[in-house]
Amino acid sequence: MNPMLLPMIAVILAGGATALQAPTNARLMTAVGSPVNAAFVSFAVGTAALGILAMFLQARPDIAAARNLPWYAWVGGLYGAVFVVAAAWGVPRLGVALTITLMVAGQLLIGLILDHFGAFGMPAHPINWGRMAGVALVICGVVMVRKF
């Protein structure tokens, strides 16, 4: 079996969960009054689920290693908060498909730049015509989802 297959399936399923998260949080927003409140509830439920999973897996953090991390290693949750608030706010205005397509386009554009420079200690993957064409096709998809 191809060793890339399982991670690829897991990431595809996670992407599907992201698509489900946007309308779920948009619906929650109507009950709790704002996209920020919806994100707060969403993160509280996610935090509880992760806490239970960590206890089940008996995952113990390496506190010494954590203390030595650079500042940017601690702000991933902020990016997630922006994503969840934007999705909850955007879905009622733009629809699920356009919101998710725009988010994927933004992820790909930033991902291409981060890959090119090997940002945050990740391996560098230089920008080339094929990678740019892939992002351009997604942007064309955004236009098609918006127009049709």
Automatic annotation (TrEMBL):
The keyword Transmembrane applies. Keywords: Membrane, Transmembrane, Transmembrane helix. Coiled coil: none annotated. The keyword Transmembrane applies. One of its GO terms (cellular component) is plasma membrane. Pfam families: DMT_YdcZ. It comes from the Bacteria. The chain crosses the membrane at residues 37-57, 69-89, 95-114, 126-145. InterPro entries: YdcZ. PANTHER family: INNER MEMBRANE PROTEIN YDCZ (PTHR34821:SF2). This is Transporter family-2 protein. It comes from Brevundimonas alba. The lineage of its organism: Bacteria, Pseudomonadati, Pseudomonadota, Alphaproteobacteria, Caulobacterales.
